[in-house]
Specification:
Layout: H1 4-26, E1 30-31, H2 41-55, H3 60-71, H4 102-115, H5 122-136, E2 145-146, H6 156-162, H7 170-179, H8 184-191, E3 198-200, H9 202-209, H10 226-232, E4 241-243, H11 255-261, H12 268-271, H13 277-284, H14 292-306
Antiparallel strand pairs: 1-2, 3-4
Helix pairs in contact: 2-4, 2-5, 3-5, 8-13, 8-14
């Protein structure tokens, strides 16, 4: 005889599946959106990305971050790609000046326009390219929901106001992610993207030279690590690049969490993860390779969650013919 508890468990499980299905489809997003209109879309994108990363692996991180920076401003609508004749689009904002690889997005778009003219949006290209860039550096892969449409507005001020700051504390970070429908777990998991790539000195130089305006250092930064960073970054350095995850910045792994646990994360926003019980617990449980499989799974889930932020679907927006300008 089936017990009440088993019936409830079965109902809850089926309800959860239904809610996930509805959540994706209410927004018009689904895996395989282009299965009939452009069946080779993922193969085309993957070919361009893998060929690129094979010769320029340092492009993987900025290509991944391009999707982040797009979604956090006006949602995932490809607005980060738009040019402005007066330099007033999102890509001109200081936080976006470190992004590279726009020419790769353009290359992907050209190939897709040859195969399926006017079908695949630039916003979806960013989502697929982000996934393939991570996978190309031995990271996880996940099924990307598609069906986004492209926006027509790109504002430099909105980018400055809405992108997460490397100077942010944990309260500010949690509030900013929550406003976009992202959880605290999404925050700590997506921060793990800092396992690849480099940073200019400016976002963390204050931690080395003038943290409180008195010529001091950040006490939350490992004092034994500070001299090494100072050797790479002078106080006014605006050109040098520093590896976010020294030694494996071209490999997607869990080493980032090991660095944060040792108080060696580059940014204040990295150090902030140790100031909240939930984010700290996640960091400490992923400091060894034993946590790799769970981090990889979590990262894919959080990237899908992020990819749903304020999307345009159906008849909203447009499908740009060129990613740098509206039709």
């Amino acid at each position: 005889m089936v017990t009440t508890s088993k019936l409830f468990s079965a109902f809850f499980f089926l309800s959860s599946i239904f809610l996930v299905f509805v959540s994706a489809n209410v927004q018009g997003l689904k895996v395989g959106f282009y299965s009939k209109s452009c069946p080779k879309v993922e193969a085309i994108v993957k070919k361009v990305v893998y060929e690129t990363i094979a010769v320029a692996p340092t492009l993987a991180a900025p290509l991944m971050r391009m999707h982040f920076h797009d979604c956090f401003v006006r949602g995932c609508d490809g607005s980060v790609l738009l040019d402005s004749p007066t330099n007033q689009s999102e890509k001109n904002a200081i936080p976006n000046r470190s992004l590279r690889g726009f020419q790769i997005i353009d290359k992907v778009k050209i190939e897709l326009e040859k195969a399926c003219p006017g079908v695949v949006s630039c916003a979806d290209i960013l989502a697929i390219v982000a996934r393939d860039s991570v996978a190309a550096l031995k990271g996880p892969s996940w099924e990307v929901e598609t069906g986004r449409r492209d926006g027509s507005v790109s504002n430099v001020t909105e980018a400055i106001q809405n992108l997460p700051s490397p100077f942010a504390n944990i309260t500010t970070l949690k509030t900013g992610f929550a406003k976009l429908g992202l959880s605290v777990k999404d925050l700590v998991v997506l921060s793990g993207g800092h396992t690849i790539g480099t940073s200019h000195c400016f976002p963390f130089a204050n931690r080395l030279y003038n943290f409180t305006g008195k010529g001091d250092t950040d006490p939350s930064l490992d004092p034994n690590y500070i001299p090494k960073l100072k050797a790479k970054c002078k106080a006014t350095d605006i050109t040098s690049l520093v590896e976010m995850d020294p030694g494996s910045f071209k490999t997607f792994d869990t080493d980032y969490y090991s660095l944060v646990a040792k108080r060696r994360g580059l940014f204040q926003s990295d150090a902030a993860l140790l100031n909240d019980p939930e984010t700290k617990a996640y960091v400490l449980s992923h400091t060894t390779k034993v946590g790799t499989s769970s981090f990889f799974k979590d990262f894919g889930v959080s990237m899908v969650n992020m990819g749903r932020i304020q999307v345009l679907t159906g008849t909203e927006g447009e499908v740009r013919k060129q990613c740098t300008r509206v039709n």
